[in-house]
Amino acid sequence: MSEKLLTDTELNVRETFERISAAAEKAGRDPSEIRLMAVTKTVAPEKINEAIKSGCDLLGENRVQELLEKYESYNKSAEIHFIGRLQTNKVKYIVDKVTMIESVDSIKLAEEIEKRCSKIGKIMDILLEVNIAGEESKGGFSPEEIPSVSEKIRDFPHLRLRGLMTIGRFGAEIEETRQYFEKMRHLLVDIKTKNIDNIYINILSMGMSGDYELAVSEGATIVRVGRGLFGERKYV
Ligand SMILES: *Cc1c(COP(=O)(O)O)cnc(C)c1O
């Protein structure tokens, strides 16, 4: 009997899916509501393709330059979401390559995405990034701004608001993080009730390697995992 040896990445993907399912069931949620995103920064395309082969159908890209360099090497069966700081002058390079921009953090950026998507006749799914801990160093809208911004997005025919994303606060204790995730869930319900055309607003992207199970228990529908799948990042 021969059994194929799995690579570290394949094992990690398998284990992460199992932990997501267990956390979902514990919270009384259907595990199929939650998508695992493989966060690709600094990771070689071969490893990313291993994750795709093991069932990961969603990639998260932080940097435009890195996305452009690696894009052609990716197995095209996975979707790509953009999750990093996005300068308006770079939007034009990615609108044809990603299916969602999760890190919309200003109206100016929304305007640019609208302009570029209207040029190529595409409707882009977007999430609003929330600076949930009110950190000065971080981008994103304050929770208080979210209701008015979500209404403003309706003025852009080539943008489809799908929900909210947050990074949380690095170094926060578990209870603090849990409260941020809970606040995010309430914010999503809030904009869903206020928006007339709300049928698409159902995505909550939160939770990373250290806290994705907690995020699942608080309602995440996308968890973004990098180190938990690919190991510690080596910056060169
Ligand atoms: C790097 C990154 C992640 C993943 O972080 P890990 O700790 O490696 O899981 C998730 N979201 C964003 C926006 C990131 O930049």
What this model shows, in words?
This protein is of the alpha/beta class. The protein has one domain (39-230): Alanine racemase (TIM Barrel, Alpha-Beta Barrel), CATH 3.20.20. It contains 9 helices and 8 strands. The chain has an 8-stranded parallel β-sheet. Helix 3 (64-70) links the parallel strand 2 (58-61) and strand 3 (79-82). The longest helix is centred in the C-terminal third of the chain and has 21 residues, at 174-194. Pyridoxal-5'-phosphate is lined by residues 39, 41, 62, 83, 167, 208-209, 224-228.
What brief labels describe this structure?
TIM Barrel; single chain; 236 residues; binds pyridoxal-5'-phosphate; globular; eight-stranded parallel sheet; alpha/beta; 39% helix
**What's the CATH first level?**
Alpha Beta
- Which shape, going by the Cα principal axes? globular
The helix content, as a percent range, equals: 25-40%
Q: Which ions and ligands are bound to the chains?
A: pyridoxal-5'-phosphate
Q: Quick check: average pLDDT?
A: 95
The profile of the biggest β sheet is: 8 strands, parallel
Order of helices and strands: HEHEHEHEHEHEHEHEH
Structural class label: alpha/beta
Please report the number of helical segments.
9
> Under the CATH scheme, which architecture would be assigned?
Alpha-Beta Barrel
Q: Predict the CATH topology.
A: TIM Barrel
The total count of strands amounts to 8
